[in-house]
Design a protein that fits this description.
Pathway: Lipid metabolism; butanoate metabolism. This protein has 446 residues and is an alpha/beta fold. The chain contains 15 helices and 25 strands. Helix 5 (106-112) packs parallel to helix 6, helix 8 runs parallel beside helix 9 (248-255) and helix 14 runs antiparallel to helix 15. The chain is globular, with a radius of gyration of 23 Å. The termini are far apart.
């Protein structure tokens, strides 16, 4: 087959391509760094011709053009699978909503449930075999594109080419239109500021729990980043990676020689991930690197797959938790912050792994905009808050005041253990609250 001839037949402009979008359509922008740029701008220019166009995306890295106009919500509705700060701004504008999910199930949502009238995503340039790589986000894109009635790819020469499993690329035969985009730089996600004393204290508790040869999953945020940096500087060796999100911390560990994957039960020697976002350092490291391997999220986040990898270590953040052991990692009351993502999948899979451990890390307190200091450990979750991890699935909880293992503990034992890692200023009140809820024994420590 003459792939170049087929490419030229399907090559068009962004303005021409978006004419296929009709009022009432479901349009999919893909995921994170794959969101379109030129196509989004062209679709926004058609705003006044359209109404009730429903768009899906997730982990949005920049404000889409379709959301910038003052009356954008009269024409477009944004639906996010996982909220970033940008998604939260779109929701606050009144034109966006969150779509709850366990991230591992997202490909099946597309296979079984969802309508996709038009899909438009950024991809790498076509290779000699006619394939466009999804680059940094295999995620659910193969199933999403397979479901789409019309597929438009926007080529970006700056996207790194990342090797992967089936489900990490699309062939020109399966594409309806090709747009050669503006080749913008790949959107970067900062690694956060310098680690705080609390970050270091938590990391100092977690890192000694990681054995040589462990397989790592890191969530995003200051604490996981700090733990990654400490691992890079530690004496640990022969680590491996199987993660939902690939972040800069893994690059630091790899460059320090800590990651070999030699003891990994599955995909030996390969760092497996569903999507990646970080600094240019990360993108340069991943480009054409055979050590890293993209994979669909129903593989990376599958609880059974995770459980097959020995000594699996999962490290994630939380917003707050209650005295029963329920963990909220996605909302502040009814104000949505992020999403379930893969946290629950990895908490369950890590515990089922031989020698595996799941760590939920957080500071003991948070300071509000008004300067008020509040405990992240609360009697019961704030009304409207989401129980990301049910109490039955939580393993280790870590704050700067200690580490506890909730597995096997009764309600009164849990309350005692959880209060022991709360900030000292809030412990007496938490004990009083536990007594009112009948989860505190008189013989418990005061």
């Amino acid at each position: 087959m003459d792939y170049q001839a087929l490419y030229q037949q399907k090559l068009t402009t962004a303005e021409q391509a978006v004419k296929v979008v009709k009022s009432g359509d479901w349009v999919d922008y893909g995921w994170c760094t794959n969101h379109p740029v030129a196509l989004d701008k062209a679709l926004a220019a058609r705003k006044d011709e359209l109404h009730d166009v429903k768009i899906r995306g997730g982990v949005t890295m920049w404000m889409p053009e379709i959301a910038k106009a003052e009356d954008a919500g009269e024409h477009f509705t944004w639906n996010s699978w996982h909220c970033s700060g940008i998604d939260r701004k779109i929701i606050a504008k009144g034109m966006g909503f969150f779509s709850p999910m366990r991230y591992s199930e997202l490909p099946r949502f597309y296979r079984d449930n969802l309508t996709v009238d038009v899909a438009m995503i950024q991809v790498t340039p076509m290779d000699k075999h006619g394939n466009f790589s999804f680059a940094l986000a295999a995620s659910h894109l193969a199933d999403m594109l397979d479901r789409a009635k019309v597929v438009i790819v926007e080529v970006n020469e700056n996207l790194p080419l990342v090797y992967g499993l089936t489900g990490c690329e699309i062939n020109i035969k399966d594409v309806d239109m090709v747009v050669e985009g503006e080749n913008p730089p790949v959107a970067q996600l900062g690694g956060g500021g310098e680690p705080t004393d609390v970050d270091r204290a938590v990391a100092n508790l977690v890192v000694p729990e990681i054995p040589n040869g462990a397989c790592l999953q890191l969530g995003i945020g200051g604490m996981p980043n700090t733990i990654g940096s400490m691992i890079a500087q530690s004496d640990l060796k022969d680590l491996s990676v199987h993660t939902e999100m690939y972040v800069d911390g893994f690059v630091d560990m790899a460059m320090a020689g800590k990651i070999t994957g030699k003891h990994k039960n599955l995909d030996k020697g390969r760092q497996v991930f569903a999507f990646a976002a970080g600094t240019q350092k990360l993108y340069d490291y991943m480009d054409r690197n055979p050590d890293v391997m993209g994979a669909p999220v129903d593989y990376t986040n599958d609880v059974h797959v995770i459980s097959l990898i020995d000594n699996f270590i999962s490290i994630n953040n939380a917003i707050d938790m209650d005295l029963f052991g329920q963990v909220n990692a996605e909302s502040a009351g009814i104000k949505h912050i992020s999403g379930t993502g893969g946290q629950l999948d990895f908490a369950m899979g890590a515990y089922q792994s031989k020698g595996g451990k799941s760590f939920i890390c957080m500071s003991s307190t948070v300071t509000g905009k008004d300067g008020t200091v509040k405990s992240r450990i609360v009697p019961t979750l704030t009304p409207g808050s989401i129980a990301t991890d049910p109490r039955t699935c939580v393993h280790y909880i870590v704050t700067e005041y200690g580490m506890i293992n909730l597995k096997g503990l009764s309600t009164w034992e849990r309350a005692e253990a959880i209060i022991s890692i709360a900030h000292p200023d809030f412990r007496e009140q938490l004990i009083a609250d536990a007594e009112k809820m009948h989860i505190w024994r008189k013989s418990n420590k005061k």
